[in-house]
Design a protein that fits this description.
- Helix content is 0%, strand content 38%.
- It has 295 residues and is an all-beta fold.
Length: 295
């Protein structure tokens, strides 16, 4: 039965030791007789600590079983936690992407050794709602010795999950495809959408940003190159040049050069062929001097 030690034992400092065989120790310090702290076991040789708020268990720590903290926010290195789990540390080490990072939190999967464990994963799950739960996962997947890749997966239906994005260890990004990306950005399906007046850009040989394509505020497609160089069009299954627009507006298609600035266009070499039914016309008041030679 219960024994009231307060009338039999007075302890001020020091240590009290002893053995309790098959019994739990219950402490009720200054809580109007409430049993707020229990030191017990849940099986042979398995220790257990229970902490109560009034008559409700809020903290359960088990040596060999499920433990939980349900009394409020938990701080590790933080006396005033601002979230259910608040991990705090202080480090003045500057970020260096080429060195091992001093972690604030580690999620580890230790399965695998040298030359094994490919496709093993360490994952963080994000859940929203307590029914028809929305789920997302941030994963790091082992791809070989000392290498891996990030993947981002999510729930898409009751029992369906899909990978949305991955980042390989050499910095390639794949979106909408489960295949390992072979380019810096690899889009498996869908479209690449730019807002109006947003631009697709590239750097020139000096590192300056230049525009390649955009849609202006008048909804006109502007395609070309804002750098100091010609625009070349390739085709025929190779990098062979088929057409060029010079910086002065001259258009060259094969052997034909048409200057948009001067009053003259010329054929530098070769011939221009007209099919039957084709026509030549002009507008304005200028005269046209055209000579045709029929073989």
């Amino acid at each position: 039965g219960l024994v009231d030690l307060s009338s039999k034992l007075s302890l001020s400092g020091g240590t009290m030791t002893g053995n309790l065989t098959g019994k739990a120790v219950t402490l009720a310090p200054d809580t109007a007789g409430k049993l707020t702290i229990r030191l017990t076991t849940n099986a042979a040789n398995d220790g257990r600590i229970l902490l109560r708020s009034d008559t409700t268990d809020k903290v359960d720590i088990q040596a060999n079983g499920a433990s939980y903290f349900n009394g409020g926010n938990v701080g590790i290195g933080e006396p005033s936690p601002a979230a259910p789990l608040h991990v705090e540390h202080s480090s003045g080490t500057a970020y260096n992407g080429a060195a091992e990072i001093l972690e604030s939190l580690i999620v580890s999967n230790k399965a695998g050794t040298d030359d094994s464990g490919v496709n093993n994963v360490a994952s963080i799950g994000l859940h929203v709602a307590d029914g028809a739960t929305s789920q997302g996962f941030i994963n790091y997947v082992r791809t070989g010795n000392n290498t891996g890749k990030f993947t981002f997966t999510q729930r898409t239906a009751a029992s369906t999950y899909a990978e949305a994005m991955q980042i390989t260890n050499d910095g390639k990004v794949g979106i909408g495809s489960t295949n390992t990306p072979s380019n810096t950005l690899d889009i498996g399906s869908g479209n690449l959408m730019l807002a109006n007046q947003s631009e697709l850009r590239s750097r020139d040989s000096s590192g300056n940003e230049k525009t390649i394509v955009r849609v202006n505020s008048s909804n006109q497609l502007e395609y070309g190159w804002s750098g100091a160089g010609d625009v070349k069009f390739m085709g025929g299954g190779s990098y062979t040049e088929r057409m060029r627009v010079d910086t002065d507006g001259t258009v060259q298609i094969g052997n034909i050069r048409m200057n948009a600035v001067s009053s003259n266009s010329q054929i530098e070499a070769g011939n221009v062929h007209f099919k039957v039914g084709a026509g030549i016309w002009m507008s304005g008041s200028s005269s046209l001097d055209l000579q045709l030679q029929v073989p």
